[in-house]
Design goal:
heterodimer; A: 257 residues; alpha/beta; six-stranded mixed β-sheet; four-stranded antiparallel β-sheet; 9 helices; disordered C terminus; B: 210 residues; mainly alpha; elongated
Chain lengths: 257, 210
């Protein structure tokens, strides 16, 4: 217990090959420490989204184990596991027939929280993600892209899960909204200290938000380092990524958090 | 004698036959809904069943309606009374649009919404009742609408086996070579179909806003 308690999530020799197709993930060994933000960085098809889905068991490993809070995902009650893990995806997936309020409070309601507690939590979450409480009775289609993504984050945080999975959550937003939300998320995470696994293909986003960056390619982990180490790495692949991010990286080099 | 004249003279009978017609359609639609929607849901959960079930419903749809009545004649219990046979026939004809639309509607729910629901830890039942069914209701109602309109038309054939309904007037008119009598059955049947189409169309539009 004591050796594992520092790592909230651990991949042990995890491979994933869907039936009848090529291997997507090969022998992944990776530990995510409790309270850190770890970014899975890589191009499309590198296996980063699959790695994320292995954590909440939307896909199951073909071999190896994914350990969440000291237990392999295959021994978890799948519903209990997922309710301890907030999940934010690029397409957000808000329920179009639910108001903002119902979207955000879905899990607390399913968990049978008393009405008063649900309402208090809703208020808290709206202010946490910077949403006007007057938006609560609106439907998702009446919101802007940035507002929707804030609702998505609030919904993932609703039942105060210790772990948060984010799959390119800001990818579909315009650049200005995106950098606003990135900055707000960084500030939020400083306060909440959740264990966050963040998937992105955007090097600058990875440098800005991560405690550590896991660089993936073709289903393999290629590098694992802090943003600072990442910037100064001599690894040719890492260097390629750093170059691709362009010249204006000075603001991103915030060192180890 | 004009059709209007005939209808005015036989109002009570036309009204009675319209009621019978409505009853045949309503009862068979009720059965079709109770059977078809669960089957449609079932094949979204057991994809191995989708081809056999949709295929069978499809084959039933291709049987000519008069022939189907012939097949049903020796069936136990159903064959004993004409209205039972008619209701059974109308029910099986209505299954295909209901099964297919339920299936297509549920499968058509935005993949991101379904992934979010699963990832958040909704059980399959919660996902079905709170997400997939509400979001596919418009498509399912469209299936009910198609099936109802087809049933109103098909139910006229039920008179051929003595099950009553507006088909009585149509067959009688054919025997008498009287356009007025044929139309006295055909016009109310057409009106019923249009009315059902319009009413369910309104409902469908309301439910499809998402």
């Amino acid at each position: 217990m004591s050796t594992n308690s520092k790592s909230a999530i651990e991949f042990r020799k995890v491979s994933y090959r869907p039936e009848g197709s090529a291997e997507i993930l090969h022998d992944l060994d990776l530990r995510v420490h409790a309270g850190e933000t770890l970014t899975l960085l890589g191009r499309s098809g590198s296996g980063k989204t699959t790695s994320l889905k292995l954590i909440n068991n939307l896909v199951s490993p073909s071999s190896g184990d994914v350990i969440v809070e000291d237990h392999p995902t295959r021994t978890w009650d799948i519903i209990r596991l997922r309710r301890r893990i907030g999940y934010v995806i690029q397409d957000i997936g808000l329920f179009p027939h639910f108001t903002v309020e119902r979207n955000i409070t879905l899990i607390p309601r399913l968990e049978g929280w008393p009405v008063g507690r649900v309402q208090a939590r809703l208020k808290e979450l709206l202010s946490l993600v910077g949403l006007d409480p007057q938006l609560a009775p609106r439907y998702p289609r009446e919101l802007s892209g940035g507002q929707r993504q804030r609702v998505g984050v609030a919904r993932a945080l609703a039942a105060d899960p210790p772990i948060l999975l984010m799959d390119e959550p800001f990818g579909a937003l315009d650049p200005i909204t995106r950098s606003d939300l990135q900055a707000e998320f960084a500030a939020l995470q400083k306060r909440l200290r959740k264990t966050v696994v963040f998937v992105t293909h955007d090097v600058r986003e990875a440098l800005l938000l991560s405690d550590r960056i896991a660089l993936m390619e073709s289903g393999r982990l290629m590098a694992l380092c802090t943003p600072k180490e990442f910037l100064h790495s001599s690894d040719p692949l890492v260097a390629t990524y750093v170059r691709s991010a362009g010249a204006d990286l000075d603001g991103c080099d915030r060192g180890e958090a | 004698m004009s059709v209007w004249h005939f209808m005015a003279q036989n109002r009570a009978e036309v009204f009675q036959l319209t009621l019978e017609h409505l009853w045949l359609v309503a009862i068979s639609m009720l059965f079709a809904i109770v059977i078809g929607i669960p089957l449609g849901i079932l094949i979204t959960r057991w994809p191995a069943l989708d081809k056999p079930i949709l295929g069978s419903a499809n084959i039933i749809q291709t049987i000519p309606s008069l022939a189907l009545f012939g097949f049903l004649l020796p069936a136990p219990w159903f064959g004993e009374r004409a209205d039972r046979m008619a209701i059974l026939a109308l029910t099986v004809y209505s299954l295909l649009p209901l099964i297919r639309n339920t299936y297509v509607g549920i499968r058509g729910v935005d993949a991101a919404v379904v992934e979010a629901a699963r990832g958040m830890g909704m059980t399959d039942r919660q996902m079905l009742l709170q997400v997939q069914l509400p979001l596919s209701l418009g498509v399912i109602i469209a299936g009910i609408r198609v099936a109802t309109v087809i049933s109103v038309g098909l139910a006229t054939i039920a008179a051929a086996i003595g099950a009553g309904g507006l088909g009585e007037l149509i067959f009688r008119g054919l025997a008498m070579v009287s356009d007025a009598v044929i139309l006295a059955g055909a016009i109310p049947a057409a009106l019923l179909a249009l009315l059902a189409d319009f009413g369910l169309g309104l409902l469908e539009k309301r439910l499809q806003r998402f």
